[in-house]
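We treat protein structure as text, and this decision shapes the records that our systems exchange. The tokens are whole numbers drawn from a learned vocabulary of local backbone shapes. One such record is reproduced below, unchanged from the form in which we store it:
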Amino acid sequence: MFRHQGKNRTFRHNLRLASNLSLVAGIVNSVGVLAISTLTTNVTGHFAYFSEEMITGQFAKAVPYLLYIFFFFLGAFVSNFCIETAAFRKKKYIHTTPMLLEISLLIAVGLWSYWNFTEDINNNHIAYFLLFAMGIQNALVTKISQSTVRTTHLTGLFTDLGIETSQFLFYRNHPDAGKLRKNIFLKLSIIVFFFTGCISGTMLFYRIGLKTLLVAALLISIALTMDNLIFYYNFTRRRLKRKYTAKHTKS
């Protein structure tokens, strides 16, 4: 689900990508709200808070909101920079570095209480880490799926879902109705898995706190492992099939 791009990418690849990483985003979203009362999967609301602090003259309080926005942007920048660098060098695993970086960030925050940070390293720093991680994920998913999948926020998703559901009422007998139906199903899947992530993240947070993010890191690790196993299984199967065909052709 990570390595296929362009014409080689199918609806199934996007569905697997969307379900896994929207679940991760839901967990991060609930942990951010419960642990530090901050949105950590998108930056839309932070623009409003930043504007409020600026207008009321609370410039020092406005700075963290500006940094929230910056770290999400920085995550997206770093993610795509890694992807483009790998593509330029013709590497097969262009998704590996961004994903490993996201896993590392989630683990770092999940083990936050063990790092013996001073009081100066507070909730804002946790938000910076998580927004950076979600910027990485959002850019990676957008790039791989060619803007078909979004996993870290639902505003645009609900907009597209509303448009496509309305279109389906008019074009259900159209030749492209099948594609429209798949798009609707994909967006509903993202919403369901994001919501599931929020619910499970909330339940886990009340039991293990920030360590809930270790579960999110584990989910990404499993997705990467399964993706590699599926790839090598298919690669080996095709290789053996070619050898078998070549052997019987000669005979």
Summary: The mean pLDDT is 87. Helices lie at 11-36, 44-55, 59-88, 96-110, 123-144, 155-171, 177-208, 212-250. Residues 6-250 form one domain. The radius of gyration is 21 Å.
